[in-house]
Write a structure and sequence with these properties.
This protein is of the alpha/beta class. The chain has helices at 18-35, 42-50, 66-75, 122-132, 152-166, 178-192, 195-200, 218-230, 250-271, 298-314, 332-347, 368-386, 392-395, 397-403, 413-422, 434-439, 445-459, 466-475, and strands at 8-9, 37-39, 54-56, 61-63, 80-82, 91-93, 97-100, 108-111, 116-119, 141-142, 171-174, 204-207, 215-216, 234-238, 277-281, 286-287, 292-293, 318-321, 352-354, 359-360, 365-366. The two termini are 37 Å apart.
Amino acid sequence: MKPSRKGVIGGRYKPLSEESVEKVHETAMRLIEEVGFEVNSETALGLFHKAGAQVNRERRLVRLPREKTIELINTAPSEVRLCGQEDKHDILLGGSRVYAGTGGTALNIYEPDTNQKRLATLEDLRRIAKLVDQLDNIHLFMLATYPNELPVEQVDVNRFFAGLDNSTKHIMGGVYTAEGVKQVVRMAEIVAGSAEALRERPIISMIACSMSPMKLDAHYGDLVVVIAESGIPLVCPAEPLCGATSPVTLAGNLVIQTVDSLMGVMLTQIVNPGTPVIFGSVATSTDLTNLGYLAGSIEMGLINAAGAQMAQFYKLPFYATGGMTDSKVLDSQSGYESALTGLLCALAGSNFIHDAAGLMEFAMTVCYEKLVIDNEILGMVMRAVEGIRVDDETLAFDLIKQVGPGGNFTTAKHTRRFMRTEHYLPTLSDRDSRADWERKGSKVTWQKAGEIARELIADSNHRLPETVRRQILTEIKGIVD
């Protein structure tokens, strides 16, 4: 049996010194107090005013004194539990514990056997849910694709139903309408057994983004309020882009990211003190030749690793971004970009690395084969985060003394005991001799990954209980079954 590595303690890698963390914090507090941020939701604007913020309604600017900002941050929980339909999939975000998951919401599916992409459908989302449910190093399922055939009014309920009906892992997703939020919450209550049971064991969570720089959109501001009122865990990420919607410097980008996410965090605590909220980053660099968005730059890994340090400073759970690639195919670029950014985030102790599996082409496309490949990468990443255990057992003085000079350790009980926990055992990587590899068909990585993906999807048998499905389909309108 291979060990299950999740919630491993990271934080050994620190791109920021303690002094630098303090400087980023001080700059963020000055911006919130002296410059302010734009709030375009009337409801949110009123709530900030009621909470004691200085509000310029003509410019829709909100400024808060540093003491009030800190008070609201401290009101948010330092840990957030995200539960699966099965207890074994529960995760606890906070501190420097590391988990990884998928990301979204991609519009396309890439098929490497034809080297073509196509629009994603609802059936793709169901199949991806089945696949992710069986990939051990992907710890939660963030709804990865957008069902292009559906009107937006039906997207929320169908995406979350596809997740809940095809995976036992925690389901996280972005949302599009306030009514959709309410219907999804009701759906999750039915699955959980009651409203109280859902709050006790939240099997879903939602995402509502801020806009960089320092702006709360009217629609997403309203969604933050609705989700916070429901008591469902909520991620408040921001996506500043170096040189475009933030300063070109990584430090300046980090300041904007910090302010932008804290806007959402503070609003949730004004709406419903104690709301389980997650500080979030999708910050990245840009292509300096055209200021286009980049998903696989090493700077993205650095910024998000630094974001983990800021989250730890504020004692907030952290949603980081890493593991993507800008490549259009499953090539070496796809591998090294995905591995490096994911590794930096994980070593820094990012609590949930989203987009860590399956995404490519500027986060616009999902690939089934890449989900399997990234599952392998994440297994190695989590082993690296785990570090090296040093104690009397692993130092093995008595064994070395017993075997002596010139001996070997192959048949030792110590070897059998530690071989699986000390070393990551790959399920995809090729370690055969060339002769054996050729005898098995000389398959390249993506071909083996495709075979694994098809087998896992075919073997998946999770489905909600029929009584629960019937109740959901009766009560929640617009679901395509």
